[in-house]
Specification:
The chain has helices at about 15-25, 45-50, 65-75, 95-100, 135-140, 155-165, 180-190, 215-220, 225-245; strands spanning about 5-10, 30-35, 55-60, 80-85, 90, 110-120, 125, 155, 195-210. It has nine helices and nine strands.
Length: about 250
Amino acid sequence: MKVSVVIPTRNRAEILRRSLGCAVFQTKPADEIIVADNNSTDNTKEVIESFNDPRIIHLHTTEDFPITANWIRGIKAASGDWVKIIYDDDWIESTFLERTVPHAFGDRVMIHTGGIVHTFESEGLCCTFAVDNTQPAHELLKRGQLQVNPVGALVKKTALDYGIEVMPMLDQVCIDSGIGPDVILLYAATTQIPNSWVHLPEVLAHYDGRYGSLTIRTLKENPAFLHDCYAKAFALLDKLYAGFKPDLA
């Protein structure tokens, strides 16, 4: 089984050093590490080269992509059977792959872990410790019993490919409202059959909201934003899920 790590980034060289470092120095090595560089003009290239690791693929572009499009670019370039996405301003524990990969087999689609969100004001757990994987993750998400966070998930590539395929259906609902790339993983998580996902309550991921998080900033201005946005998204998800269960084998 091949595992790809994808790190979307733009002009955050010094922060990238941390996220890229945690991908490079995993106790169970990734097979490839793709840095989806969205036309950075700082010293991103030098930071990448400083690791001198042949697994790193610097996916550079000379044009500006929307955030979501850059995520999709990195995911499409991944050749792994499973994909770990890391925001450039976030990081994972060195044992993340060691602890999650053993659960990635058969018909499973997602391995989700616990994590911590860090802000200037406070820090705390950012994942609900759901344990009932006898139900589709779609239903648990609606009831608030499973909080999918891309930073804490290892996802099957075919699930992400499906997420990319249906992304246009959610563009106006979520992306233009500020949730953006998270929707890719949201879709991957909500198209699952029972027993196809595993939740590990270990704290293995860190979401850093101190570097211009769009979601945190929007929530401060409009606390009801996230609830309203996801309510609209789930209304659409219900229609899609009722009529189509994708083949993610």
